[in-house]
Give the backbone structure.
Amino acid sequence: MTVISYLAMFANIAEQLLIMRLTKIVCGIKSSRLKYLGYLVLIISILPAPILISKPDTFSKGIMQLLFICYCLGRIAAYSIILNGLSPKILYIFLLTMCPPQIYMNICQAFIDDAEICNLVSFLIDDVSLALILLHIRRRKLEMVVHQTAGSFPKKLYVNVLFLSLIAAVFVMGENKPNHELYYKIYILPCMIGLIITALSIIQISVSEAEKNTTVDMLSKQVENEVKYYEKINTIYGEFKSFRHDFKNHIICLRSLIEADETENALKYIDEIEELSATEKKPYNSGNIIIDALLSDKNERAASMNAKIVFSGHVPSAGISNVDLCIIMANAIDNAIDACGKDDADTPKTITAEASFQQGYFFFNITNPIFETVEIKGKHTIATSKEDKEHHGFGVINIIRTVKKYDGEARLSADDKQFRLELELVLKPDIQ
């Protein structure tokens, strides 16, 4: 054995210790009490490696394969002892870390003829890479973030990463094989098929993640709206408590006036109360206090577009959740307000909303003026003639998704410079 072989062995041991440290962070585990026994098993399993590298022709192919299997089993045993057992995550990291040194070594062989030096350089590259990753995690104090993030990725993504690393290793190893043409003929087709499947799977994961992020953003917005509307309801409840307190005082004053036979003053007092209640009357009365708060909030936004919301009818308080009501009405009204904002002339505009429920059905219609060409593709897809292609589109998708939840129907139309959305939902008795 040469000095370079010994250096490669120490570099290999250092690589395994760095992998062990990274595994602890990713899996969120601590070393067992028998960790030193695990380290001893790890070192023993690595000891034959320098001999195999320095004198590869001394041993038969069968012995070489046997020693490689012992090397792998020794690593797995060491991982199990040090990391309190062998979980799927630990086994995955073991398999994933098998490929990089082999890839580095085969790349080095394209520039360096000495196998021992290539082996040493490959381990050193892996050591530096792992050390930089761990240094970055420690300096930024990202241990908990890495652990939580690693657990949140889809399982398919982990499988795809492992396949990609194996495919890369196969291609790189084939270049340095004496009979690499035969090697490629045997492995190239399975690798290409695997690469295509992996690429398609990654695309599917990306699309799913994009849809999930869109849904999360939508739900976050709806939750924010819900909180805001409940805060308004709390304000209304506070005003009601104040009115109830004042009402008692009004009754006392009226009683004293009537008992004193001051009928004229009592009537004047009643007129003053009526005037006061008229000024405090809420602009909307849909039968659902949350929707009243929503309409009031949206009307304030519409006023900034020189528009107003005219609402008629009643909204059910059962059969459909308040969250779903907010998704439907908030998105529909927001789209209508955005459409009014397209008016360059800034003329007064009216958004008309109608709601009713009967025989187990909830009906909601909204009409607003439009100031650009609106093209309706299919049943529920909207395209515009201007650059803002999201006009109506994103909100309508959220509305349709909620309507389908209630086995409902949606109809869209755009003519005579008016956009109309008509919804029909089946109320569910189990929702109170």
About this structure: The radius of gyration is 36 Å. The chain has three domains: 3-152, 218-279, 289-426. Residues 218-279 form one domain.
